[in-house]
Amino acid sequence: MSVKEQLSTNKPVKGTSKAGTQDDVVYAHIFDAILEQRLAPGTKLNEEALGEIFGVSRTVIRRALSRLGHEQIVILRPNRGAVVASPTIDEARQVFLARRIVEQAVTEQAVLHATKEQIEIIRGMVVEEQACFDRGDRGAGIRLSGEFHLQLAKMARNAPLLNFQRSLVSQTSLIIAQYETGGKSHCSFDEHNQLIAAIESGEQAKAVELMMHHLDHIEAKLNLDGEGASDDLHAVFSHLISR
Amino acid sequence: MSVKEQLSTNKPVKGTSKAGTQDDVVYAHIFDAILEQRLAPGTKLNEEALGEIFGVSRTVIRRALSRLGHEQIVILRPNRGAVVASPTIDEARQVFLARRIVEQAVTEQAVLHATKEQIEIIRGMVVEEQACFDRGDRGAGIRLSGEFHLQLAKMARNAPLLNFQRSLVSQTSLIIAQYETGGKSHCSFDEHNQLIAAIESGEQAKAVELMMHHLDHIEAKLNLDGEGASDDLHAVFSHLISR
DNA sequence: TCACGTTGTAATGTATGCAATTTTTTCAGT
DNA sequence: ACTGAAAAAATTGCATACATTACAACGTGA
């Protein structure tokens, strides 16, 4: 099925589901492409080029980019176009701090409000996630492990938290894609399964503890110690500056 | 100074500051108009009408509305236009729950990272806020008391939290405008001043406690007990339905 | 050779016109 | 009158053309 055809039929793209206007489809495609690292951080997102690729006008592309910009997964520079965000180490730390705060609340609320149907759904998602890693599809795996946390936020029944979680999860995926070391499995599905169990049985404190450790493990697998290459000249040569 | 002139000069609008393209100006104007209740919840935002008012094309209006939509302060209904959001009581409760979570974290971080200059700035903001209420400018007062909490988030030095806070504060202002009872002063500047003092002296636990009480007081002044009129027929006649 | 201003090109910002959809109005039938 | 269908009007979605801005290449003068 060509991209153009997908635009006419209103079927959602892979994981990301949303129906309606055309920019939803474009949004979802770019979104997935970034999360699955088919678009590297820093890549310039040319409006006309994207328009030709998706067979739509710049108007539609522009709207999609605007939305991605609001989620901080692309950066919109006035008069200079959009680029895929490339979070600095400091920004990455801020995202993880924010996530700890939100995930704690989300977990507590999810324990209170989760329905049986939602537990079923999220169980299925973990299975699918594991399948992705088994077959070596790292990109889709990262995306699905993110969607696990999104589903959790849905179970918390709090729209603002869900929206914020959406933004944080996207940014986290970007960070993982950029800073993950080794290449080992990031989100161990085992931890995801334990979390589900704790939530289902209503063990709030335990669920929160599991979640915090889970986040610790994710962050521990990253290379956030500042050893990576930098494009900030001042930072690179800071040791030479006396002041 | 006419609106058109303000569009050409790049001066920011009142409190909301942001420079760059035209939709920034339009965004800020509509934003302020909503927070100051010159635009009532539920008001339809006609693109062409707004375009004539601001002397710009629908393209610009559209972009501004899109951004307001992402902050959940206007609702974008595909093919049916945008309306000023009118949060339900349940949504209002969700916003307050989210705010408690974020404000706690923000306060803790602000205690850790606040600079003297920032303390000065926020002191000035409280003075200005008080002046607004003294002179009876309720709308500007609501907006400024919101900006107090935004400034706090800036002091926390965490970009994602700041963004989220921005959205939550906007929504809170809408909720206050919609549900506040009596008409007494909502955000007592006294509480704001106490908070500043606690933050300045580094008393983290006390600052958080003050903040939580502050939020309690705000919510207490609202009429969220479901006595208000509703436009949801099912909700209105739910007591008649046996099921 | 380097600094710096100039010009040309490419990309973004904005306006406008047409197509598709929704909402309102009209009007026949009961 | 009231209901419901059909036509008309209004409004949004999208594409395209033009204006404006940033970037790069080039050339000039020290």
Describe the structure concisely for a colleague.
Chain A is mainly alpha-helical. In chain A, helix 6 runs antiparallel to helix 9. The C terminus of chain A is likely disordered.
Can you tell me about this structure?
The structure is a homodimer of 243-residue chains. With 243 residues, chain A is mostly helical. Chain A has 2 domains: 82 residues, Winged helix-like DNA-binding domain superfamily/Winged helix DNA-binding domain (Arc Repressor Mutant, subunit A, Orthogonal Bundle), CATH 1.10.10; 132 residues, Four Helix Bundle (Hemerythrin (Met), subunit A) (Up-down Bundle). Helix content of chain A is 65%, strand content 4%. Chain A has a 3-stranded antiparallel β-sheet. In chain A, a hairpin with a 3-residue loop joins β2 and β3. Chain A starts with a helix and ends in a 7-residue tail after the last helix. Chains A and B meet through α4, α5 and α8 of A and α4, α5 and α8 of B. Chain B binds a DNA duplex (30 and 30 nucleotides) through α4.
List descriptors:
disordered C terminus, DNA-binding, mainly alpha, homodimer, 3 strands, 3-stranded antiparallel β-sheet, Four Helix Bundle (Hemerythrin (Met), subunit A), 11 helices, 243 residues, Arc Repressor Mutant, subunit A
